[in-house]
Amino acid sequence: MNNLKRTALSLALVAAGFTAQAQKSITEGVIVYNVTSNGQQNEAKNYFKGDSSSYQLQQGPADIKIISNTKGDYMAVLVDVPVASMKKAAISTPADMEQMKGMEPTFTSTPTTETQTLAGYKCTKVTAKDAKSGKTYDVWVTKDVTVPSNNLTKYYANFGGMPVKFSISQMGQQVDVVLKSITAEKVKAGTFAVPADFEKITMQELMSMRGGGN
Predict the structure, then answer these.
(1) Model-level pTM?
(2) Which SS3 state, helix, strand or coil, does residue 150 take?
(3) Which of 210, 190, 187 is nearest to 198 (CA)?
(4) Running DSSP on this structure, what letter comes out for residue 83?
(5) How do 40-49 and 173-184 pair as beta strands?
(6) CATH for 25-207?
């Protein structure tokens, strides 16, 4: 009987160990994603620490960085085009943030029993439906690890796990996102700041530059 108790206790401890590992929380580091839009695939990195996030992506000759926080009350979009000697930083105003929030989708979630392993994490599929457009998306989430939400994952923050494979709509285009890796590491100083050599502009001016102005 004692052997059975010891065996049961050992199994319980092992299970507890796996549970503790499965619920690992990372508060500082970098997430690497594969991002596909219009048939083009890019690698994007999201540096995070506490409530700050810095999403970085290269689009053609431009290096794009989006600095934001989990509160959703601050965002800066930095555009660096070395070949054109251009460095612009569009800083959002409270009115900009309210306008962007009004344009964001409103999702409802329907959990499923489908599972698969992605990027080394056990994931479960959740069906998301946008109440505004009626579109549905498959969202794969994991409970193996937790990290702060960012500009890509914030729409699915309440889907029962960290989004690993999902789609979002940006500027009317579908963007498919797949997690590649998460690394816990110290983020360099200045990652969440706008460098002094960037010219500060408004969000409206940025939209006009990319052909989105009225």
Answers:
(1) 0.83
(2) coil
(3) 190
(4) G
(5) unpaired
(6) 2.50.20.10
